[in-house]
Amino acid sequence: MAGCGRPCAATRTRRVSAMGADEVRIEPVPVEDYHRLERELFGDAARAGTAGVSRMWAHNPGLMKAQRPLQEYLLGDSTLPPRERELAILRVTWLCGSEYAFGQHTLFGERAGLSAEEIRRVTEGPDAPGWTPFEAALLRAADELRADARVSGPTWAVLAETYDTAQLIDLIAVIGRYWTVAVTLNSAGVPLDPDRPGFPERPAS
């Protein structure tokens, strides 16, 4: 596929993420090449989008194809209510400093019913005033998995009051998935898409 063998020169700029990395290391493939690959891999199920994250994955067609069913499950068919799923995703992408992933899921979160204030409050963590005990546990699970690779007993107990076993597994899986997405985006230096949000602005003190 033309244009997919080697990254192009890093000529694009983007807002600096919390990780401080602003170098584009893996330039998203050209849109035409991405659409061609989508048709080759997925046929009638090909997507027509232009998101930089999708065009970054296109540098590795095998991985691009292999991960699609997991992504569709986690964002469409999992046992988690969308609002709760997005709280967990926003928290782990914030912790990883992935402005791209946080911005993308700001839009998903809004569609799932999160307010702008709730999305901003995710950045303050599970102890911020305003969360229910269960919502705080969702955020704390992301904190603990990133820090300790394990959900603590107290956090698990709160989650298990509401979630069944399948939901607990889905929660861990979606946090792990978006840790992978976040660190890949950070390392690749994928620039923010035009007219897409990044991290929320802090309120004036």
TrEMBL record:
<feature type="domain" description="Carboxymuconolactone decarboxylase-like">
    <location>
        <begin position="61"/>
        <end position="144"/>
    </location>
</feature>
<dbReference type="GO" id="GO:0051920">
    <property type="term" value="F:peroxiredoxin activity"/>
</dbReference>
<protein>
    <submittedName>
        <fullName>Carboxymuconolactone decarboxylase family protein</fullName>
    </submittedName>
</protein>
<dbReference type="InterPro" id="IPR003779">
    <property type="entry name" value="CMD-like"/>
</dbReference>
<dbReference type="Pfam" id="PF02627">
    <property type="entry name" value="CMD"/>
</dbReference>
<dbReference type="InterPro" id="IPR029032">
    <property type="entry name" value="AhpD-like"/>
</dbReference>
